[in-house]
Specification:
alpha/beta; 16 helices; Aspartate Aminotransferase, domain 2; binds pyridoxal-5'-phosphate
Length: about 450
């Protein structure tokens, strides 16, 4: 496992990967100049490549890893589960891991969201929530409620159905004719605050835009979908929790469902287990994925209320929820999730994270004060800032993200900026020494990359 390979075999692995593996979110040609890292193993916050070089996983491997790579407790739970049941279909059958996980998650919402429906990836959870809302209204005889509202800059996944509520031109444009359109309303992104204003003003303004849309079309709207507190994929746009309270009230007033996509922001990322707890509201559907399995196995789920569940409860199969997926409720993935939730409980992770977050914010202060940084922001265990360029149209500015990524690797950091937004989303087990490494080296990389742009 820990064997260190020779550089010759490393380049061979890279070559073979580039020939046979089509990598996601990647223009493959960029790998002519950009490194591809063949990972040998992971330990704690670190990934180690085949030459033994380590990288601190500052983005939790696309926001999934919570308690480190090769976590002994999650490993032990999975090994135990492997000897009992690797998988069984969930139609007509059930098993202990999926029952215990559903009960635990329901308990975390005080029983408000007491029914869990399972899938494997985040985009599928989005689609399930959209379909459930649509079908619920249909079962109620409200067949005209077929439309959805999403926010400007929203990201809910990249399958065809999820793209309908994803407002990212790059991901949508090529597939435009295949995608159904949703109504896109203002984002409460707090970066819009002007001098003398507050994030709450922006939240109110965005909620007013939502209300305009609802006034016009509520009879045709099934649900509003949003990423509570942080729109991660489009540049870590953060907003005040007042927005969630206002939208919850609007959804009640106009009889529209609220879908909270907590795929990225759930599982303690924002400081509370569910991001919506920050606003003391519950959506009608909550989507979870990524961190729920500790970053071990593909698992996603949609939680919903008793009233919505009852809207499908009938003798007629066609009134039941129609979504079949082979790996629904996979026991291994559920067991990894149970081990993850157990760590939250036994280690009082949310309290520990509050202390850790303060220390990370302190370590990032030189960056926060940097004259080429604006909108330094933080929510729970997420940090982001925007790089400022004199001219954003220069090639150096346009290639900032890739150059930062490459330079960070040189400094043993895995960081992947989104455009000119640099963000940090480390696993929760990051220790004080690693926090210092992140603070010092992120600053060094930023200075180097901005120096090249000058
Ligand atoms: C908020 C949000 N929703 C949905 C998704 C899609 O999840 P997946 O990549 O597992 O399909 C993501 C992925 O980054 C996300 O951040």
């Amino acid at each position: 496992m820990n064997a260190v390979n020779t550089s010759a075999s490393t380049s061979d692995w890279v070559k073979r990967s580039l020939q046979s593996v089509w990598h996601p979110c990647t223009q493959m040609q960029h790998h002519e100049t950009m490194p591809l890292i063949p990972v040998s193993h992971g330990r704690g916050a670190w990934l180690v490549d085949m030459e033994g070089k380590r990288y601190l996983d500052g983005i939790s491997s696309w926001w999934v890893n919570l308690f480190g790579h090769a976590n002994p407790r999650i490993n032990a739970a999975l090994k135990d589960q492997l000897d009992q049941l690797e998988h069984a279909m969930l139609a007509g059958f059930t098993h202990e891991p999926v029952i215990r996980l559903s009960e635990k998650l329901s308990a975390l919402t005080g029983g408000v969201l007491g029914h869990c429906f399972y899938a494997s990836d985040g985009a599928s959870a989005t689609e399930i929530a959209l379909k459930m809302s649509f079908h619920f209204w249909r079962n109620q005889g409200q067949t005209e409620k077929q439309e959805f509202i999403c926010l400007k800059g929203s990201y809910h996944g990249e399958t065809i159905g999820a793209l309908a509520v994803t407002d990212v031109a790059l991901f949508r444009d090529a597939y435009g004719p295949m995608i159904r359109n949703a109504h896109v309303v203002a984002s409460p992104d707090a970066r819009q605050v002007k001098e003398g204003g507050t994030a709450i003003d922006i939240a109110r303004r965005a909620a007013a835009d939502m209300e305009r849309c609802l006034q016009e079309r509520a009879g045709k709207i099934a649900a509003v979908i949003l990423e509570p507190l942080v729109q991660c994929a489009t540049g870590f746009a953060m907003h005040d929790s007042e927005y969630l309270r206002l939208v919850r009230a609007l959804c009640d007033q106009y009889q529209v469902h609220l879908i909270g996509d907590e795929i990225a922001v759930g599982c303690g990322r924002t400081g509370t287990f569910f991001a919506c707890e920050n606003a003391q509201i519950w959506p009608d559907f909550v989507c979870l994925s990524k961190g729920i399995s500790g970053g071990y196995l593909p698992l996603s789920l949609v939680m919903t209320r008793e009233a919505i569940y009852q809207g499908f409860y009938d003798s007629d199969v066609r009134r039941g929820f129609l979504h079949s997926h082979s790996y629904t409720g996979n026991p291994l993935a559920c067991r990894a999730a149970l081990a993850t939730l157990e760590i939250f409980e036994t280690d009082d992770v949310l309290a520990q994270n509050r202390v850790k977050a303060a220390s990370i914010t302190e370590a990032l202060q030189p960056l926060a004060q940097h004259h080429q940084v604006k909108h330094f922001r933080q929510q729970g265990m997420m940090w982001a800032f925007d790089a400022v360029f004199d001219d954003a149209n220069t090639p150096a500015a346009k290639t900032f993200s890739r150059r930062f990524f490459t330079q960070a690797l040189q400094e043993e950091l895995l960081l992947r900026p989104i455009g000119n937004t640099v963000y940090l989303m480390p696993p929760y087990i990051v220790n004080q020494e690693e926090i210092s490494i992140v603070g010092e080296r992120m600053l060094k990389v930023f200075n180097q990359v901005m120096g090249e742009a000058a």
